[in-house]
Amino acid sequence: MKWLSPYFVLSFTLMLQNVFMSMAAVKSSQMTTAGKSHSTASVAGGAAGREPSSQESVQEQGVITLTSRNFDSSIRDGNTWLVEFYSPWCGHCKRFAPTYESIAMEFHSSDSPIKVAKIDGTIERALTSRFSIKGYPTFFLIKGWDVFEFTAPRSKENMMNFALLKMEGMEPMNFLVSPFGPLGMTRGIIINTGTWIIDVFELLIEKGGLGQTLTAVIMSGIATLVGTVLIICIGLCLVPKAKVD
């Protein structure tokens, strides 16, 4: 049981603390952006006078925005998803944006089962890790459990053929390294856990009236306690039983 040494326990709890502190920092920066977006959406909703249907929403917005919160639930709708990982500062992303928007409008305005979406890689770090993003823009086609990566020159024709599975030599990613394989699914669990932690963090701030720093300290303390108890329980379960003669 050498691996259950105090050094291991300390390292594990410190890791959990760093996770909570990092999430606190991310949440702090996102709350302002979320507030602005909420205000803009409220004004837009008031001007429209009614809530648009889901089909209208897709057609009006063109490219659908996916986040860590809605990614897994969205791609399970039975459709094929063309997804772009982009960065707001990426020049290639900006130049291709009008073309990508026209592709989205073309697919969404018909009865095509293909949905066109984008993910801001600078914000959705968990998803970029899950898909092992190394540069922007990067495009994937998600069809059920199969994931295809776009490697051809960027053009509307190539992208349309890619979405329709008409490009030559298209092969799905190896399941083991796929976002939906063992590693990817593990990262997905981490994403869902992280989302829950952020929700708790937000609840403590908004409903509990606590400051961001105090909330981060409290959650770090909880992480330390949970990590220590977990390690102790694992250790007790793995201790060999004494032989009875």
Q: How much of the sequence is in beta strands?
A: 5-15%
Widest beta sheet: strand line-up: 1-3-2-4-5
Biggest sheet, open or closed, and with what strands and sense?
A: 5 strands, mixed
Question: Average pLDDT value?
Answer: 76
Tally of separate helices: 8
The total count of strands amounts to 5
Range of helix content: 55-70%
Structural class of the helix and strand makeup?
alpha/beta
How are the elements arranged and paired?
Layout: H1 6-48, H2 54-61, E1 64-65, H3 71-75, E2 80-86, H4 91-108, E3 114-120, H5 125-130, E4 138-143, E5 146-149, H6 156-163, H7 182-206, H8 212-238
Parallel strand pairs: 1-3, 2-3
Antiparallel strand pairs: 2-4, 4-5
Helix pairs in contact: 1-7, 1-8
Tell me about this structure.
Helices cover 57% and strands 11% of the residues. The protein is of the alpha/beta class and 245 residues long. The chain has a five-stranded mixed β-sheet with strand order 1-3-2-4-5, with helices on one face. The longest helix is centred in the N-terminal third of the chain and has 43 residues, at 6-48. It starts with 5 loop residues before the first helix and ends in a 7-residue tail after the last helix.
Task: Provide a concise account of the structure shown.
With 245 residues, the protein is an alpha/beta fold. The chain contains 8 helices and 5 strands.
List keywords for this structure.
245 residues; disordered N terminus; 8 helices; alpha/beta
